[in-house]
């Protein structure tokens, strides 16, 4: 994610790397895909093109395959070379379900925190946006 989307995350690479794994599982639940197909869909989740590196993506996919979250197989590439196609494995589906439940709980917590911040800002006579600008 670019710094505009996450302005206060110091040292958050590992956390964002784990979020990348979640996004890959989600995309592979939707449909099997090769690496370049996956990297084209990741900006939807807020990843910038600067953050997306095909080498790191394949490294992550290999790690996920060693954890048995995904499977891969080679398919003929038509006129081009063979392509490795990834698909979600049953263990990956379980991991995805754990992730989504955790994210739902965090969403509720985040919404409460934002709501409280907005309420405090309003009580202090500041709009939430102007309060952010003055920090």
| CATH class designation | Mainly Alpha
How many separate domains? Answer: 1
For the largest beta-sheet, the strand count, sense and barrel status come to: 3 strands, antiparallel
At the third CATH level, what is the topology name? Arc Repressor Mutant, subunit A
Number of strands: 3
Q: Tell me which CATH architecture applies here.
A: Orthogonal Bundle
| Termini Cα gap | 22 Å
Low-confidence stretches: 1-14
Features:
135 residues, alpha+beta, Arc Repressor Mutant, subunit A, 3-stranded antiparallel sheet, 59% helix, elongated, disordered N terminus
Write the layout of secondary structure elements.
Layout: H1 13-30, E1 33-34, H2 35-41, H3 54-66, E2 70-77, E3 80-88, H4 90-123, H5 128-134
Antiparallel strand pairs: 1-3, 2-3
Helix pairs in contact: 1-4
Descriptive notes:
By secondary structure, the chain is α+β, with helices and mostly antiparallel strands. The protein has one domain: Winged helix-like DNA-binding domain superfamily/Winged helix DNA-binding domain (Arc Repressor Mutant, subunit A), CATH 1.10.10. Helices cover 59% and strands 14% of the residues. The chain is built from five helices and three strands; from the N terminus they run H-E-H-H-E-E-H-H. It has helices spanning 13-30, 35-41, 54-66, 90-123, 128-134, and strands at residues 33-34, 70-77, 80-88. A three-stranded antiparallel sheet has the order 1-3-2. Strand 2 and strand 3 form a beta hairpin. Helix 1 crosses helix 4. The longest helix has 34 residues, at 90-123. Mean pLDDT is 85; it is low at 1-14.
């Amino acid at each position: 994610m670019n710094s505009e989307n996450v302005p206060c995350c110091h040292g958050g690479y590992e956390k964002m790397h784990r979020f990348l794994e979640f996004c890959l599982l989600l995309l592979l639940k939707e449909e099997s895909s090769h690496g370049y197909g996956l990297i084209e869909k990741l900006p939807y989740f807020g990843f910038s093109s600067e953050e997306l590196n095909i080498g790191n993506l394949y490294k992550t996919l290999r790690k996920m395959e060693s954890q048995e979250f995904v499977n891969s197989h080679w398919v003929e590439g038509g006129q081009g070379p063979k392509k490795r196609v990834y698909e979600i494995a049953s263990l990956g589906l379980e991991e995805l379900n754990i992730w989504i439940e955790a994210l739902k709980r965090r969403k509720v917590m985040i919404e409460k925190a934002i709501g409280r911040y907005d309420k405090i800002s309003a009580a202090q006579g500041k709009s939430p946006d102007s309060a952010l600008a003055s920090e």
